[in-house]
Structure formats: structure tokens, C-alpha cells
Amino acid sequence: MFNQTTVKQLEADVGKDVLGQLFAVFKSEATKLTEQIMAVTTLDNDAVRFSHSLKSCARSYGADQLGALAETLEAHAKNNDTAFFAERALLPEIHSATMAAIPMS
Question: Are 45 and 52 in contact (CB under 8 A)?
Fold first, then answer.
């Protein structure tokens, strides 16, 4: 679930102890953003913003699958494409799998 190159680079940059703290922040932020995306009822600026934020958060930590889905959601929201809602249905499962695979938990 996590890009090991990204995780190893983060560990080299901040050290193992801080990396554990960062992954705790990631878990909290990704969960909050997932909840916000799941609560979206219209394709407005919030849908774009939450999806963009989740994409950035996930990619920063090497959660590539979660980041890719968030990128897809962001594109749909920007284009006012209702496919956003069908794709969003994948989010809870991918989020859960990502959280279960956090390297420093």
C-alpha cells in the first residue's frame, strides 16, 4: 500500500522516531479528509479542495493508491462530473486498507 522508496526517504529525512509521529498525523488527516469527501453531496469547491488535500497528503507519505483515487476524485469534481460519486464508493475500502498498512503504526 505504501511506496517504500517514499517511506525510506521520509525516514532518512526525519528519523524513525519523528516518522512515527508523522504517520500518526497522516492517519488523522487522511481519515478526516476521507470523512469530508464521503459527506460531500454536491460537486462544489469543497469536493475539489478535500480531494486535492487527500491527494497531496497521501502522496507525501507514499500512499500511492489512495493518492491516485483522490486525484481521480479531484478531476471529476473539477469537471462537475457525477462519476465522482461512483468512484467515491471505492474510498472507504482503500482508506481502510491504507490505514491498516501504515508502516509505523
Answer: no
